[in-house]
Structures are given as C-alpha cells and as structure tokens.
Amino acid sequence: MKYDFTGWLPAIAKTPYRKSAVSIAGVAVLAGLAFGPTAIAAPVTSGPHAGAVAAIDLATGKTGKANEGATVESALTTGGTTTGKPAPGKPSRDKLIPHGLEGAQSRIPLDGAQLANAKAIIEEAKKTGVGERGAVIGVATALQESKLYNLGHLGDANDYDSQGLFQQRPSSGWGTPEEVTDPQYASAAFFNALKNVGGWQDLPLTAAAQTVQVSAYPYAYAQWEEQAADIVQQNW
Q1: Has residue 187 been placed in a domain?
Q2: For residue 130, is it within any domain?
Q3: How many domains, the chain?
Q4: How big is the chain by its Cα radius of gyration, in Å?
Q5: Shortest CA distance to 82 belongs to which of 60, 104, 98?
Q6: CA separation for the pair 155, 139 (Å, rounded)
Q7: What's the pLDDT score for residue 83?
C-alpha cells in the first residue's frame, strides 16, 4: 500500500549540474519507495522483499537458479569493514554506527556508477551538515531504494512516479522528475528532510530512514547499515 503526502520541501540550493538517470527495463518494482518529505510513520509490514531481491540480482549478476548462492565480487566492492582502526582523517565506527547493527546484513558489489552516486550522497551530507552518521543513513537508504543506481522511470514496472537514488515521488512534493534524478538535488532533499526529524541522530538507522521515506517496508533499511558505513568511511 502506498500513501500520497504533499508538503513543502525546505529551501534547497539547486545546482546546474545534472546526471542522466538510468532506466533499467525488467527490474521488479523496488519496494520501500519514497514519499513526500513528511515525518509520518507507516504501518508495519513484513514478508519477502521481492523488489530488493530482483535489484540485488541485477547488481550482482545473479540471473536465476543456476547462480543461486553465488557471490559475485568486483574491484569496487567495499569489502573492508569498519571494525578495525580507521585511516587517519577517516570517521570511526562509533561515529558511523553509534547504535550498533540491527539484524542480518546484506552486501553487494559496486560498479563505477554506484560508487559515483555514493560519493555524491556523501558530499551532500557534508554540505547539508548531517555529518558522517547522516551520510551512512543516506547511503543505506539509497542502497535499499535503488541499489545506488540513479533510476529513471521504469514504465509499467514503476511504482507510481518514484524515481532516482531515493525513489522520490514528484507528485508528493520532492521535486520535478529532472530534480529527483539529479543525485545532488535528491541527496540534499533527503538530508534536509532528515534534519526536520527531531532527534534523528539518536534514532536507529531504519527508524530515521523510515520517518523520511514512509516506506511500506520500514525495516528493510537496517540490512545495509554496515556496507553504508564502510562506503562512508572509505570515501569521507
């Protein structure tokens, strides 16, 4: 079930830079898609996350039963962890994951496009002042919503008008289709909405992300926290 919330976004500095969105035909509807920038809780749901499974399969190259259980690695996989001592100038695990991990963790390899989008999210986290923890929440949210691909409209497979890294809906006040498929704009919109969530720094990642996204799958964000922390630590 989806909800349509309309609201005014905080003022966001627009940039003339635009990156074209990727349209991936045949991807199942991505679950946990974003709504308007409102802080309203969604009902709790459970069950298989078919959309996420399909997107993970696409990203990792797994295409059917012959590859079930296979692990596909790439040179851009963030294979390191935040458990060791960080390099000089890099954020510590305590800053990245202050509340501990929730549940089993997922991890996928990243290609060049995904890594570039992750870096764009991290840069907007710095600009908007949400810091390292905000960056982890943003990257984890985009891993869940789009697997860090800047998705354009997927035609019949699209969930309403959700698009971009965070699957934000233009009809719910997030911006125009061109804006929500601009990684910089979309990230700034997400972080400015996050800053409107009272005490977001003290919330578990999945609660902070869900309050912004209002997803039908509120607990799905938690599975990406460790990989998101690794990405932020390596690219901060």
Answers
A1: yes
A2: yes
A3: 1
A4: 16
A5: 98
A6: 25
A7: 52
* 211 lies in some domain: yes
**pTM for the structure as a whole:** 0.71
- The domain of 56 spans 50-76+88-235
In a domain, 42, yes or no: no
Total length of the chain: 236
For the chain, 236 residues long, the average pLDDT of each consecutive 10-residue run is 33 40 44 46 33 46 40 44 70 94 96 98 98 98 97 77 94 95 98 97 96 91 98 97
Q: Do 9 and 128 meet the contact criterion of CB atoms below 8 Å apart?
A: no
- Cβ 109 vs Cβ 60: under 8 Å: yes
Look at residue 22 in the predicted model and tell me its pLDDT.
59
Q: Give the burial string for 29-62 (b: 16+ CB within 10 Å, else e).
A: bbbbbbbbbbbeebeeeeeebebbebbbbbbbeb
For 106-150, the DSSP string reads ------HHHHHHHHHHHHHHHHHT-HHHHHHHHHHHHHHHHTT--
**pLDDT at residue 59 in the model:** 44
